[in-house]
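Open question from group meeting: does this chain pack into something compact, or does most of it stay loose? Before anyone orders reagents, we agreed to write out a predicted structure and look at it together. Recording both the input and the output here so the notebook holds the full record.
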Amino acid sequence: MDKPVRHIFAIGDNGFNKDPENTDLYRFLLSHTGKLLPRVCLIPTASGDAQSTIDAFLSLFGKLDCELTLLSLFRGEKEDLESIVLNQDLIYVSGGNTRNMLVLWKEWGLDVLIKRAYDQGVILAGGSAGSLAWFEGGVTDSIPERFSSMKCLGFLKGSNSPHYNELTRRPFFQNAISTGELPDGMASENGVCLHFVNEEFKEAVSPYAEKFAYRVSRVGSGFEEEAIPARVLAKTLDS
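Structure tokens returned:
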């Protein structure tokens, strides 16, 4: 039996916090479920299940045609993680502390459940920590006041850096790839979404004009950076 088509959307930032009126990117994500009323689950572990993150997500996605579920590890509101995770059409992971998130996921077995869901065709998406998590590794500011490289879930080959328009993060990623600390990878500016289909990069998209993703590769003792213009998503008028 053939595997279902698998989608991952890795977004450079938490756009629903910063631009809550712009639903274009999230409509684009939902369109790939093929459902009229897709089931969407927010996993806000990286934020510590912050109420502000939850409220912003519910406010934006509440404008769209979908059924929303919250999976909280801090609040313990729902105990049957397996039934929650495996019965979604799209799982969205918020930003925050990537290291803390992955430690908690492993402790609860959530990393294994999410991989099962992904293999069954559940779409994975997220911004910032919710972008970085899917790769082999990448750049994080989970340790206060400095950047560091870290190992992630490895659903996608290579490394990742969200927030690539932040000038101090960009050279760290470039240097980590130059030295072999991180494997070759992809980066995205805030507002840019990397779309992967069956673990292969398809395109970069954004609701905003003149935005870029980047492919960064080790070349000798240095690096090569290729800019990839993001396709601008069509504007949608909310009814």
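Observations to bring back to the group:
The CA atoms of residues 85 and 114 lie 7 Å apart.
The chain has eight helices and 14 strands.
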